[in-house]
């Protein structure tokens, strides 16, 4: 591989909602940049969603800046609808995304610049926007006996849709919206489903307006400012109580059990002696931020997270994280992309002024 680094002002890693929003604002501002995406095609993490997650069932998809998503068939898979929308967006605004490109490491080059090492060569950048999201880091918790289970274990990241679980006994672990969606659709074909969560689920009825949204984001933001790993916005908003969820509660599909004590070769057991046989354990246990490639920069705090102010990493002002913590929602990613670019322009202008003064 040619190791001569290509110079650019800003490298954007990731071409999902956060990355495309940032690229849109960088393009409008006339900032020299490159967008690197490891996925094979446009669509961000949406392209990997299971086929039964139709666009009409998507929770909180917000349009990218400057181009609305209109006329989408609610019965089409969200992976297709959003993938086509992102592709059209890239084409319309001339966002030349390089893909597939895997970023292995970001290092301090020692000359004030950043060295971005990838499968397609190396870039030298003045600043970097990390917009890698969480899909590439599914969280698999560990429990006693897990390795002895003779059935199938899979994570939401690999969920193929309900058809593969016809006639199966399924334990779904996790308290988020994905777990609820999996349960509702698998219960129609499975022999039995059992829902297990660490904490009792909280459902919210009625509207979830701007004030409630701001309060939820503030809770996530407070953790990030303290240098703790971010929680998802959904973790503090609760689960929406819609007609399908009400039906699931009424039928017993969404009757929740406390977390089991251990896993056995043929199911799970509880401390009180309860036992459930299972053919499948589906871990709907969420994701973690995909930021391992930033490890050489030593951005993590003792609490395990990267402390940010707005989108800027406190330990290195050249690094912005968009789609991280409070900006992980689709509307949050849009706003954060614009805010990051405003700060980056000030950083680049200061650097240019310092160079001129020399």
What is shown here, in short?
The protein is α/β, with parallel strands linked by helices and 358 residues long. It is built from seven helices and 19 strands.
Q: Mind explaining what this structure looks like?
A:
This protein has 358 residues and is an alpha/beta fold. The protein has helices at 17-29, 78-92, 177-186, 210-225, 234-237, 243-251, 330-357; strands at residues 6-13, 33-36, 97-98, 103-108, 114-118, 121-130, 152-155, 169-173, 192-197, 203-204, 239-240, 256-258, 262-264, 267-269, 275-277, 280-283, 308-309, 312-313, 319-321. It is built from 7 helices and 19 strands. Strands 1, 2, 3, 4, 5, 6 and 19 form a 7-stranded mixed β-sheet that branches. Helix 1 (17-29) packs across helix 7. It is globular, with a radius of gyration of 22 Å.
The structure class reads: alpha/beta
What sequence of helices (H) and strands (E) makes up the elements? Answer: EHEHEEEEEEHEEHHEHEEEEEEEEH
Give the low-confidence spans.
none
Q: How many extended strands?
A: 19
Summed over residues and divided by their number, the pLDDT gives a mean of: 91
The main pleated sheet reads as:
7 strands, mixed
Give the helix proportion (percent range).
25-40%
Task: Using the alpha-carbon principal axes, give the shape.
Answer: globular
Number of helices: 7
Radius of gyration, CA atoms, in whole angstroms: 22 Å
Estimate what percentage of residues fall within beta strands: 15-25%
Measure the end-to-end span. Answer: 35 Å
Topology of helices and strands:
Blueprint: E1 6-13, H1 17-29, E2 33-36, H2 78-92, E3 97-98, E4 103-108, E5 114-118, E6 121-130, E7 152-155, E8 169-173, H3 177-186, E9 192-197, E10 203-204, H4 210-225, H5 234-237, E11 239-240, H6 243-251, E12 256-258, E13 262-264, E14 267-269, E15 275-277, E16 280-283, E17 308-309, E18 312-313, E19 319-321, H7 330-357
Parallel strand pairs: 1-2, 1-6, 2-3, 6-19, 7-16, 8-9, 8-16, 9-12, 10-11
Antiparallel strand pairs: 4-5, 5-6, 13-14, 14-15, 17-18
Helix pairs in contact: 1-7
């Amino acid at each position: 591989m040619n190791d001569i680094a290509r110079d650019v002002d800003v490298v954007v890693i990731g071409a999902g909602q956060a990355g495309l929003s940032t690229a849109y604002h960088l393009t409008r501002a006339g900032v020299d940049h490159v967008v690197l995406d490891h996925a094979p095609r446009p669509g961000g993490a949406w392209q990997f969603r299971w086929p039964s997650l139709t666009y009409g069932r998507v929770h909180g998809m917000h349009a990218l800046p400057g181009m609305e998503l209109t006329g989408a068939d609610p019965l089409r898979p969200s992976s297709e609808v959003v993938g086509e929308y992102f592709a059209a967006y890239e084409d319309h605004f001339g966002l030349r995304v390089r893909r597939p490109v895997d970023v292995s490491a970001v290092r301090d080059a020692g000359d004030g610049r950043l060295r971005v090492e990838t499968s397609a060569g190396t870039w030298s950048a003045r600043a970097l926007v990390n917009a890698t999201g969480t899909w590439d880091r599914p969280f698999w918790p560990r429990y006693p006996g897990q390795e002895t289970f003779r059935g199938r274990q899979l994570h939401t990241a690999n969920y193929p849709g309900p058809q593969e679980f016809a006639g199966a006994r399924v334990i779904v672990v996790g308290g988020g919206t994905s777990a609820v969606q999996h349960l509702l659709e698998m219960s129609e074909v499975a022999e039995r489903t059992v829902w297990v969560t660490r904490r009792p689920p909280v459902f919210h009825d009625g509207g979830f307006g701007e004030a409630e949204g701001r309060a939820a984001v503030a809770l996530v933001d407070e953790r990030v400012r303290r240098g703790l790993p971010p929680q998802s916005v959904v973790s503090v908003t609760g689960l929406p109580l819609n007609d399908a969820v009400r039906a699931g509660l009424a039928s017993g599909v969404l009757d929740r059990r406390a977390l089991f004590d251990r896993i056995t070769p043929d199911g799970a057991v509880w401390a009180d002696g309860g036992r459930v046989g299972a053919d499948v354990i589906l871990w709907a246990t969420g994701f973690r931020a995909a930021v391992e490639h930033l490890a050489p920069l030593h951005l993590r705090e003792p609490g395990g997270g990267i402390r940010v102010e707005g989108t800027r990493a406190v330990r290195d002002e050249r690094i912005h994280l968009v789609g991280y913590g409070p900006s992980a929602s689709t509307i949050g990613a849009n706003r954060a992309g614009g805010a990051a670019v405003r700060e980056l322009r000030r950083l680049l202008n200061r650097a240019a002024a310092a160079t001129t003064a020399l």
